[in-house]
């Protein structure tokens, strides 16, 4: 004899699995950990500082003089 299943529960399980798969795919595309974000920010700050260090004349906006 076959097993009796609850169609409502089966439908909800299938929908949850689809949502989980979609979330995993989105995390792979867009998700970054807090450490990765901090590392990227530090690299940008270092690159900006290196670029500013090569200026011939100081930027008037950064020196506080307008």
UniProtKB/TrEMBL annotation:
InterPro entries: DUF4169. Residues 1-66 are annotated as: Disordered. Residues 33-66 have a biased composition (Basic and acidic residues). Pfam families: DUF4169. This is DUF4169 family protein.
């Amino acid at each position: 004899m076959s097993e009796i299943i609850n169609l409502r529960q089966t439908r909800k399980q299938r929908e949850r699995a689809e949502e989980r798969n979609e979330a995993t795919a989105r995390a792979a595309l867009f998700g970054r950990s807090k450490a990765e974000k901090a590392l990227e920010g530090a690299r940008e700050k270092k690159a900006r500082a290196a670029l500013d260090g090569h200026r011939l004349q100081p930027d008037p906006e950064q020196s506080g003089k307008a």
